[in-house]
Give the backbone structure.
Amino acid sequence: MAATAEGGAGDRPTNPWLIALVVSLATFMEVLDTTIANVALRYISGGLGVSSDEASWVVTSYLVSNAIVLVASSFFAKRYGRRRFYLACLATFTAASILCGFAWNLESLLFFRVIQGFAGGGMVPISQSILADSFPPEKRGQAFALFGVAVVVAPVIGPTLGGFLSDNYSWHWCFLINGPVGVFAFALVWYLVKEPASLRKERAKMREKGIRFDYVGFGLVAIFLGALEVVLDRGQTDDWFNSTFILIAAGISATAFLLSIPWLLTKENPVLDARLLGQRQFGSCFLVMGATGAILISTTQFLPELLQDFYGYTATWAGLALSPGGVVTMAMMFVVGRLSSKFQPKYLIAIGAAIIAGAMYDLTRLYADLNFWFFAESRIIIGLGLPLIFIPITSASYFGLRPDQTDQASALLNGARNTGGSIGVSIASNVLAHREQWHQSRLVEHVAPSEPAYQETLKTLTQFFSERGASLPQAQEQATAYIGQMVDTQRGYLAYIDVFFTLMLISAAAIPLALILKNIDLGKKQGAGGAH
């Protein structure tokens, strides 16, 4: 149980379940922000006068900054105090959220969004550590179940809540809503959360030994991820490697990556334990989590966009289409919790990846007359598969690690999810843009005056509009415009089909990675941390 609180919290007894609720509330708010802006991107794009591609940076900038700071959160919590660091992150996150709501252009919004991501990235792994210290070992499973439900539900509620706020109020409220919740959570954390005496002793030892933060390693990792995100986000717009800017960004990313490898492998106290990624067991789990993050975040962004652009859904209804999948995911958390004690994680993970791949393949059957439940059912299928990955991957990833490596493992898995999500969104955005152009060029080849099928269609449509009161010139103009609209709609459907097919391949790639994992002792207790 946690000991005396730092900063004058005293020795008052605190109900650990109150701590669990408070910590889960703060984490819920942080994870919510990974998806709450997804359905609001059209409003943000229109409100700030930017393209939809540029508006998508609101999502990816948050994910990348979130992933970057994860690797440093463990050191700062130990060096400056877990409670103090957590409160600083929560306060900064709340302030940055309010500033996002008052952003006056895209540049200011992205700047505040990056700050929000940095602050939020430090909260989740520390939340897990606070829970571990607040509960005795025999009750930690229940506490992490509550924490896990909050983390799973947040990304699902995000699009629905974001859609409702955008439709009925303003996209600004997708960020401003964090203000009162953050202040409330800050007050409760200040009052309830205590700093264990063991951590104060460990902090004193770190100061005595003169252990300093690995600024060089952190800088190299940050530059690598940041420059990579610039390449992925701007590549399509700037014509990839025909652009000097993209070449420079790619060169910076590659250089930082190459320099980081020897540094992280030889540094005595590196910001990131790169050796973990070289292990077959943990390295495979890292890649699977990255692929899962790509699917989770990409589908949460692109399904609402598809529904709004081609099926006429409001942001609220686009968000609601994802909600049934969230309910299924929450229920499956408890089912998989029982299954994970009876079956090897690698088989559960492989089954989960196969289910998600099937859901992605199902979404390639797009056509104009699909109804709400087609998309809701596809999300339900995804909801069946996700818990089969998220819960077993914790046991699989911690197998064979030393106790002092669990903090790093937790940070890396959370980073894999966020980085994978960011890369997934960028890949899907580029596939969508490229394939829209390709399909339009192919479709236009058949919409030529010399084509008999085009002449027949034009004649039929002209007659249709003439019978409804239009003059012959007006009817011909309306018929031509209608054919153009049909071409535009068809190229959109075909491009989204390609996006979902690409995501299916990413899901399928996780299956062999899961099957090469080692069998673990199902009766042996694993680390307390987990990926969110």
